[in-house]
Design brief:
The protein is built from eight helices and eight strands; from the N terminus they run ββββαααββββααααα. With about 200 residues, it is of the alpha+beta class. It is globular, with a radius of gyration of 20 Å.
Length: about 200
């Protein structure tokens, strides 16, 4: 904290954004939350913060840019002739997810909202949607999460599970780690749905 004109101003100030997401997207975020043992809000924030600096995600979003912007040392050209995300409507019920971004992350979201010509909340919604639909991005995100948060025992157990499953598969194809993780995630989600319902 520091003083500014007699007021105490926190140096770790956060900016809140409340994107409205479809129930299906919220369910997907809840599954990731369950798998990673993190809150829904933290998962949504991490995906947005990773997505806004992901070349794969931003390249996909750039087809909707109405204004040109610089992001991560790359100039993305926008045009009013590009299809606007305002025309993309999410059908069904929506729920707002409150997310608090640091000033740096919020500035990236704000730049994205300018490029898309929408509010920061809508930009975060589109960012979540495109990030979650990008398989490579989600694989990278999950891999990064496990490398960052998994303890040695959990990684050791996953490696043994992977070796056992790969060795005992009756098919000629080799089982990839992503398929194994996907299977574990699906089983975890199915189990949690069973106990919740």
């Amino acid at each position: 904290m520091f003083k500014l004109l007699g007021r105490v101003v926190p140096t770790d100030k956060y900016r809140e954004v409340k994107p409205a997401v479809s129930l299906k997207m919220k369910e997907t975020l809840l599954r990731i939350s369950s798998i990673t043992h993190t809150s829904l809000n933290e998962v949504a924030i991490e995906i947005c913060e990773s997505g806004v600096v992901s070349k794969k995600v931003i390249d996909e979003m750039s087809s909707h840019f109405q204004h040109s912007i610089w992001l991560d040392q790359t100039l993305y050209r926008g045009s009013q002739s590009c299809p606007s995300v305002k025309n993309i409507t999410i059908t069904g019920t929506k729920e707002r997810i409150p997310m608090q971004f640091s000033d740096i992350s919020f500035e990236n979201i704000r730049k994205l909202s300018y490029a898309l010509d929408v509010t920061p909340s809508t930009a975060a919604e589109v960012l979540l949607d495109i990030s979650l639909k990008n398989g490579e991005f989600i694989n990278d995100y999950v891999r990064h999460f496990f490398n960052k948060h998994a303890n040695k025992k959990r990684i050791h157990e996953l490696k043994h599970t992977f070796k056992f499953t790969s060795a005992s598969t009756p098919y000629e194809e080799e089982l990839s780690k992503q398929v194994l993780l996907s299977y574990i995630f699906d089983e975890t989600a199915a189990t949690s749905e069973h106990y919740m319902g």
